[in-house]
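pasting for the record
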Amino acid sequence: MYKLRMFNMKWQLLNYFLISSVVTVSGIYIVLEYYEKELSSWEFRLWFAFAILVVSLSVGFIATRRWQRKVDELHVAMLELSKGNFTVRIDMEPVEPFLYLYDAFNSMATSIEERVQLMQKLGEAEAIRDQELTESAVMEERRRLARDLHDTVSQELFAIHMSASSLPKILERNPAAAPALMNQLIEMSHHAQKQMRGLISQLRPIELKDMSLQEALEKWFPEYCRTHELQGQLDVSLPEIISEAIEHQFFLIIQEGLANVIKHASAKQVRLAIYEREHQYVLQLQDDGQGFERRDIPSASHGLSTMRERAQKLGGEVEIDSKLGSGTRVRVRIPRFSGHSGGKQE
């Protein structure tokens, strides 16, 4: 079959060559047969040569243009495939010089689409299975952390109580020392309040079983931003229902990304956007923090590697763009296949 296709391509090239040759030979024959006397004129010879050249170039231009269109069509299809459009295919005509190339491309695109789709399904199944296996352990760990951190806050509250209890005596014996103690109480109470908000935000279990990703984010994201004194902007636009596994992985990636913002960015504003393109789901998290240089971040950085692993489980990728003093943008792209929304499991 391959040899037959190569033969068809070579035969079409030969056709163009034969057409050009026949036109040229026919022109020479006609001139020699009917215009023998005019051949003595240099002007006639010049016009004849020009006509033959124009005909030959025209045939060559038509052939080249036709082939160029075919190459451009293949190039565009390859670009679409590289951008994550795994459904792209090239329409083939019954008589097609590039038939073997187009057929090979379509076969390759079909194979890639099937493999990425299978990878995504396996990743979803693995994510759901891991979630079920670790749910009880995670909840127990959260309770343990809540107890430990509660003890820390309790100690601070106890110190506030002791200082407040001593305030009447200080006012009685040394009124001048009272303002300093009151300022200390205000600072301690503010710190304890901030700690308590952080504990509630971090340890409160967020479940997606009874709500969509958008509903969960609308509930959790503003509270998280207030707790950590950030100005947050949320923009979620998902017209269709996406699978539970993708929602879960997105939510975990968002939590990891925001934790990095709090720990490292020193940011004042953060914007979270989730939307879909024709062939992709896109998550974008952007802050106005201090940013970083690539060389300053270890390749094995836990936060970044965790986000990449979560995206790769579903056949996706993570792109991180950051500059010192210009903030950081994290973009996650997950392939979107038609007819594969997944929905919520009952």
